[in-house]
Write a structure and sequence with these properties.
- It is built from twelve helices and 16 strands.
- The protein is an alpha/beta fold.
- It folds into two domains: 3-115, 2-Layer Sandwich (Enolase-like, domain 1), CATH 3.30.390; 121-352, Enolase-like C-terminal domain (TIM Barrel, Alpha-Beta Barrel), CATH 3.20.20.
- The strands form four sheets. The chain has an eight-stranded parallel beta sheet with strand order 5-6-7-8-9-10-11-12. Strands 1-2-3 form a three-stranded antiparallel beta sheet. The protein has a three-stranded antiparallel beta sheet with strand order 4-15-14, with helices on one face.
- The structure holds magnesium ion.
- Residues 189, 191, 215-216, 240, 262 line the site of magnesium ion.
Length: 355
């Protein structure tokens, strides 16, 4: 089988409401969807959803990068996934969302060629994956109300954004815990918004709120700050923006700066690299989470299949597709009830889009 064409298009996704985090305010989203065709009539679908302030990419740059890949990829065997990653890496450094778009489409079409769900192709066995749902920054009262609404929809896990105002963050966590009771799991994501001192103060003030983990308290470049926090921390520390590519995982494991990793297909370049990072983390007894950017159900499905295949992925934050008014013609075969995603048994990742 040989790759014959790569088609890519931008789609616009409208949010139900603006999403505020410590490093940005998102009011509209666009993402790039990709279809890779082969000479055997099998196509695979992928998505590249760059965020300028995380991956340094825009939809326009993802489209341009995908054009650069065409000459190397067309004519190649789509099963040669590691080799094709090396060709992309040789063409351009970083640009992980563009590489993820190709990677997801390749995995989709390989699984389809074998007639198996993507999780089977990746070595997994479970169809069900449970995700949390994220609460953006708002007034503490509004955040607590939103938490209650989410739990009433059947979710059992929350992720709470913090990192702009320490006093508000502490109040939000207290009100949310009070609103949802003891059984709900709560993660916190500061999105680089704290100093070391602020993070330690936060942990002290919310010590009785039963917080599962804190994501990325300090700026992405401040691995030393993460290490300082971890040495005194009462809550596990997870790297997100400090962990982009595979080499960052090596550095974080060597320095022992964090307890956990947040892997995102759009930061690391797709499933192949994501599984490499997860394997290294597993060998070092570092549990991982599969997280997401502002992605449509297409790459969310791919990420959920990876979760199914990797038991070391102990936390799941694959909720972005629930924040859109509609998903721009993306048709997915997985279903979600409460936070429980059923991947089904369709070949590939089970998502298609007209491009
Ligand atoms: Mg995060």
């Amino acid at each position: 089988m040989k790759i014959t064409a790569i088609h890519a298009a931008k789609i616009d996704l409208e949010l139900k409401k603006p999403f505020k985090v410590a490093i940005g305010y998102i009011t509209k989203v666009d993402t790039v969807v990709v279809r890779i065709d082969t000479d055997e009539g099998i196509s695979g679908f992928g998505e590249g959803s760059g965020i300028p302030f995380v991956t340094g990419e825009t939809s326009q740059s993802v489209l341009q990068t995908l054009k650069l890949f065409e000459k190397d990829l067309i004519g190649q065997n789509p099963f040669a996934i590691d080799h094709l990653h090396k060709l992309m890496d040789r063409t351009i450094v970083r640009n992980p969302a563009a590489k993820a778009a190709v990677d997801i489409a390749l995995h989709d079409l390989c699984a389809k060629a074998l007639g198996v769900p993507l999780y089977t192709f990746l070595g997994g066995v479970k169809r069900m994956v449970e995700t949390d749902l994220t609460i953006g920054i708002d007034t503490p009262e509004n955040m607590a109300q939103e938490a209650q609404e989410i739990i009433s929809r059947g979710f059992t896990q929350l992720k709470v954004k913090t990192g702009i105002d320490l006093a508000d963050d502490i109040r939000s966590l207290r009100l949310i815990r009070e609103a949802v009771g003891d059984q709900v799991k709560i993660k916190v994501d500061a999105n680089q918004g704290y100093t070391v001192t602020e993070c330690l103060e936060f942990m002290e003030q919310v010590h009785d709120c039963d917080i599962e983990l804190i994501e990325q308290p300090t700026p992405y470049w401040d691995v030393e700050g993460l290490l300082q926090i971890r040495k005194k921390a009462s809550i596990p520390i997870m790297a997100d923006e400090s962990l982009m590519q595979v080499e960052d995982a090596v550095h974080l494991l060597r320095t022992g700066a964090v307890d956990m990793f947040n892997i995102k297909l759009m930061k690391c370049g797709g499933l192949h690299r994501g599984m490499q990072i997860n394997a290294m983390a597993e060998a070092a007894n570092v549990p991982t989470m599969l997280g997401c950017m502002t992605e449509s159900p297409l790459s969310i499905a791919a990420a959920a299949h990876l979760v199914s295949a990797c038991p070391n992925v102990q936390f799941v934050d694959l909720d972005s597709f629930l924040s859109f008014k509609d998903v721009g013609g993306v048709r997915h075969s997985f279903t979600i009830k409460g936070g429980m995603i059923d991947l089904g048994d369709a070949p590939g990742h089970g998502v298609e889009v007209d491009i």
